[in-house]
Amino acid sequence: MNTRTKAFAAFATAAALTLLPMVAHADELPEETVEVVETPAEEIPAEEAPIEETPVEVPVEETPEPDPTTPEPPVDAPAPVEPAPVTPDVPAPAETPQPIIVEAAPRVPIFNDPCGTANDSWADPGNTPDAPWQYDQTAPVLDGNGEIIDQGYVYAFLPDTHVMPNGNRTWYPVWEKSEYFTDAPCPIEGPPPAPIFTDPCGADNVVVTLPQSDIWLYEVVRDEVGGSGQVLAFVPEGFVIAGQGGRFWDPVFEFRDSQVGCPPAVPTDPGGVSPGTPTSDVLAATGPADMVPAGIIAAMFLGLGVILFTRRRRTN
Ligand SMILES: [Ca+2]
Ligand SMILES: [Ca+2]
Fold this sequence. Notes:
Blueprint: H1 3-24, E1 100-101, E2 110-112, E3 121-123, E4 134-137, E5 141-142, E6 148-150, E7 153-157, E8 162-163, E9 175-176, H2 177-180, E10 186-188, E11 196-198, E12 207-209, E13 217-222, E14 229-234, E15 239-241, E16 253-255, H3 281-284, H4 288-315
Parallel strand pairs: 1-8, 10-15
Antiparallel strand pairs: 2-3, 4-7, 5-6, 7-9, 11-12, 13-14, 14-16
Bound molecules: calcium ion (2 copies).
One calcium ion binds next to loops.
C-alpha cells in the first residue's frame, strides 16, 4: 500500500467513526429541527432577480425608390362632396376712416321773398371745403283743400365723411320758411275792366261778357229769380287791391234783366203776305209818332186819286 492509499484509508475511517453515531440516533432528533420553510416564488422581489433585457433587432423594411418609368397606380377618385351653400362674398371689413369733425356752423340760406307767394324761393349759401354743409327742405304741409298751411323748413346736414362734435350730422335749429316767407301780397291798382251786359228781349236772359285780364278774375252770381245778378271782380291770392285792401273789388258790377217781351214771331208764308199782317217795322209800330206819317201818306194817295178822277171827268 502506497502513501496516497494509506491517507485515503485513514480519512475514510475517521469519517465513518464520525457519522456512525449520528445515523444511530437519527430517529431521536426533534421533528422541528428538520422543517423546511418554503418561500413562495411570487414573493421574491423582482429587483432581487433583475433580468437583463436583450435588445431585439427589428428589421427595417426599406421602401423601394419609385421607378420613374413605372406609371403611377391610379388614385381612387374622392367621394363627391356635397356643395356648400353659396354665400355672397362678404368683403373683409375695411377700416372705416374716422369722420372729420366739423365745428363751423352752416351758413344761413338765402331766402328770396318777393310779394305774393308764388315766387318765394331759397338758395344754398355755399360753404368752404372744410365745412361741407349741404342744404335741403321739407315739403310744404297742405290742408284738406290743398292750401299751404305750413311752408316747411330748410335744414343743413353733413355728408358721411364729416360729423359735428356732438355726433350729429343734421344741424339744429332749422330755418322755418314761414319766418322768412312773409307772403306779403302784391298791390294791384283798380278799377278792374267792367263786364258787358246784354239784355235781349225776353225774361231772365241777360248775357254777361267778361273782359280778358291777366290779373283780374271774375265770378258771375245770378239771383235765383228776376234775372238779376252780380259780377265779382277780384285778384288772385298773393295780391291785394291798392287803396282798398283785400282781394275783392268794391263795388260789384250788377245787372238786371228788363223783362221786355219780344214782338210776336212773324209766321213764314211762302205763298205771299196775308192781308192785315204788318210787313214792316214801320207799319208794325203802334205808337202815336208812328201813326202820323202813315196817315199823311194815305191822305196824299186819296187826294191824288180825287184829282185824277176830277180831271178825267172834265176831259170827258
Ligand atoms: Ca313772398
Ligand atoms: Ca231780357
